Amino acid sequence: MKLGRVIDNLWTENKVEQLHACRFHIVQPVDSNLQNVSRPLVVADPQNIAGINDIIVYVTSADASQAFDSGFAPVDASVVELVDSID
């Protein structure tokens, strides 16, 4: 699991069936001090829980597709949680 900040939204006109109700965000990966650590990436939000400037936990690879209720979607990164605070 990784931390990121939602910096923008992404809209698409054509999606595969598993992604029709899913939003997409552009996410800046951050460390536990909220400092940028790499380049932004596109992250699927299968539960539609994140918004601009939210700090999120996201997963990549096979875990990303398992974040969907169907258990599969053709994505490389998915939001799994919102971060309330970092102590």
Q: Using only CA atoms, what is the Rg?
A: 12 Å
Query: What letter string, H or E per element, gives the SSE order?
Result: EEEEHE
CATH class: Mainly Beta
Shape: globular
Total strands: 5
CATH architecture classification name: Beta Barrel
CATH homologous superfamily, by name? EutN/Ccml
Distance between the termini: 17 Å
What class do helices, strands and sheet pairing give?
mainly beta
What portion of residues belong to β-strands? 35-45%
**Order of strands in the sheet with the most strands?**
3-2-1-4-5
Give a verbal description of the structure.
The chain has 87 residues and is mainly β. The protein has a single domain (2-82), classed as EutN/Ccml (OB fold (Dihydrolipoamide Acetyltransferase, E2P)). It is built from 1 helix and 5 strands. It has one helix at 62-66, and strands at residues 2-10, 23-30, 41-45, 55-60, 77-82. The protein has a 5-stranded antiparallel beta sheet with strand order 3-2-1-4-5. The radius of gyration is 12 Å and the shape is globular. The protein starts with a strand and ends in a 5-residue tail after the last strand.
